[in-house]
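Final report, Chapter 2: Outcomes

The project's central promise was a pipeline that accepts a single protein chain and returns its three-dimensional structure in a standardized token representation, suitable for archiving and comparison. That pipeline is now operational. To close this chapter, we reproduce one record exactly as it appears in the project archive, with the input sequence first and the structure output second.
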Amino acid sequence: MTKPDAKPDEHKGWRHWFHRNPALNLAYRIGVGVIGGLVLVAGLIMIPYPGPGWLVVFAGLAILATEFEWAGRVLKFAKRYYDRWVEWLRRQPGWVRALVMAGVCAIVLATLYLLNAFALVGGWFGVEWSWLQSPIFGSR
């Protein structure tokens, strides 16, 4: 309910202020897109690692969903399938869960190797083994 002396558009909140000016509205949408996209990409990178990867993905999609309808649909889809995956995994025997964990560990180890993390840490301790060098970022 609006105040009797309020302007007709005043009850729409602060977001309406941006809608009144097309250039400001475009800048705002670009800002939301960039920030939401960066959060989403960071979450996608974090998924196989210990920590809040999926939470960050959902946060990025939620940020994007404030301005983009497609992001809201993707967020609902992702939540639904994430919940289904977690429920399926809970019903599996221990050896299946261990196999999934081993796969996740393999992905983490492969990315750490490709990013030259093993050679970096080995260098801190004086271990200079050639096989620790990444084929992509190795210095030799």
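Archive annotation: The two ends are 70 Å apart (CA to CA).
This record, like all others produced under the grant, will remain available to the consortium after the project formally closes.
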